[in-house]
Design a protein that fits this description.
- The chain is an alpha+beta fold.
- A 7-stranded mixed sheet has the order 1-9-5-6-4-3-2. It has a two-stranded antiparallel sheet with strand order 7-8.
- The radius of gyration is 20 Å and the shape is globular.
- The relative contact order is 0.13.
- The model has no long low-confidence stretch (mean pLDDT 87).
């Protein structure tokens, strides 16, 4: 596997930034897949997100990021999604930060402050290799920062139509599974905890989730899993008509 270290300006990474929700997040002039299918949604809390901008304005170094070069010549983020979305959202005017007691969106910064952010260079390791090599590398470097859950790591190996549909039903904030089971289940949808729970219900043992995902990876949808989840919730409501917290 080939690995190359590059210095890339934030302004270039934020160029043509678009968050298309379930269809993904892109930047770098449309050439960077910021949130590949196996990645989690944005999970940084406000203070951590704001700390990224504060770090940049102070000229302190951000941790190194990792990209993978794809066969078509474009790139995907292996590690650094949360930091990348943090500064892209700020430049895009999606939130403000407190500077000397005043909330300031990007457009209200001085020209000097804006240029300081746009010209800030991040260190990016770009790797090029097979899918397995890239995903193995992603698993290896995921030892710091926002550590992946077991289910998020499983998602790395079973991307495809089944997983995309399953994430729509079980992994999005405010997803249909979360709304249907809000009285009976616990878990954070965008950390894949509800998806993991549904999979455990259908296979009976958490250790069997990997085999189930491998078997259904190429399925057109995750309807079997959804119907099973829905039937469990329906059974609970019919069996215990009087709800007790």
């Amino acid at each position: 596997m080939k690995i190359e270290l590059r210095q890339i300006k934030i302004g270039a990474i934020a160029l043509d930034y678009r968050d298309n929700a379930e269809d993904g997040v892109v930047g770098y002039g449309g050439n960077l897949d910021i949130r590949p299918p196996y990645q989690r949604e944005f999970v940084y809390k406000d203070e951590k997100r704001n700390a990224v901008i504060d770090t940049i304005l102070k000229g302190f170094p951000l941790n190194v990021m990792y990209w993978a070069k794809k066969e078509d010549g474009t790139y995907e983020v292996l590690d650094g999604q949360q930091r990348t979305i943090s500064f892209c959202q700020y430049i895009n005017g999606e939130y403000s930060i407190n500077i000397n007691g005043v909330d300031k969106p990007f457009h209200s910064l001085t020209d000097y402050e804006q240029e300081k952010i746009l010209d800030y260079e991040v260190m990016v390791y770009v790797c090029e290799g097979s899918d397995k090599e890239r995903l193995d590398w992603f698993t290896t470097i995921n030892i710091a920062g926002e550590k992946l859950t077991d289910q998020e790591l499983l998602n790395i190996n079973y991307t495809g139509t089944w997983l995309s549909d399953a994430k729509k039903k079980f992994s999005k904030t405010g997803c249909v599974a979360s709304k249907m089971g809000d009285k009976y289940i616990k878990g954070v949808a965008n950390r894949q905890e509800i998806l993991e729970l549904a999979l455990t219900w259908i296979v009976g043992d958490k250790k069997k989730i990997s085999s189930y995902m491998a078997e259904h990876q190429r399925d057109a949808n995750a309807n079997e899993l959804w119907f099973h989840f829905r039937n469990v919730i329906d059974w609970v409501e019919q069996t215990f008509p009087k709800y007790r917290k």
